[in-house]
Amino acid sequence: MQRDRIQAIARYNEKIAEKRFKKMGYSVRWLDHQGSRKRPEFLVTEPSGNLLVCEVKSLFSGGYLRDRSAHVSTMDPALLNTGVFSWDIDLGPMKADLSDAVAKYKQLVADEPEFEGLPLLVVFFFDEFADNFDFFPSKMDEHPEVSGIAVVERDAAIASIVDKMPLEELESVAKSGSMKGFPPNSKELRLVLNEVALNPLPEHFVESCLS
Fold it and tell me: Contact, 21 vs 28, CB < 8 A?
């Protein structure tokens, strides 16, 4: 795996998440600047006060193929040109990331008790082979401190229209290459709420996201 590139992409993903919150009208204060004392990435605030704490996680591998000595990832050159392969869905990496996010959240609260009770949102970014977001359960019994998980979804409104278009119309649009009449390109947060969250996300925030 390309470690330096992976680290750079992970930092870039954190900036994407920050920008998404700012586009939604919120302010962001970075928290992860305490050296060895790891904390969630940032605090999200609104004019009335603190809204939530956010941790950003980037998953680059959907598993490891021992027979090929390669990760199931677009970031692993060893996987290229090795032929057809299959792998099992593994939610373990996402669960491990949630455990890490909770540990960071607890460290933050220990350092700054005024943040206790704030919702914790974990925003995921995935390699295409590692994306198990749609398979993750909404009842996160092992992580009640996690209020919800999210991904940044691109062009949800456009995708909704395309899904409902008759085949003939869809083929016509594809041939024309024109997106006239479609909504503008967009990025939105898509949420999965934790049914057993200790600190639920605010209703007005949830309503501003996709579910």
Answer: yes
Do 210 and 202 form a contact (C-beta atoms < 8 A)?
Answer: no
Average pLDDT, the chain: 85
Judge contact between 121 and 52, C-beta under 8 A: yes
Residue ranges of domains in the chain: 3-154+186-207
Q: Which two tokens stand for residue 178?
A: 């024109």
Distance of CA 78 to CAs 8, 86, 107, 109, 189, Å?
A: 20, 15, 38, 42, 33
DSSP three-state, residue 15: helix
Confidence check: pLDDT of 127 > 70: yes
pLDDT, one tens digit per residue, over 45-101 is 999 999 999 999 999 887 777 777 667 777 766 666 676 766 678 899 999 999 999
Inter-CA distances, 40 with 27, 168, 196, Å: 16, 48, 21
How many helices and strands, by DSSP H and E, does the chain display? 5, 8
Q: How many CA atoms lie within 13 A of 182 on its CB side?
A: 21
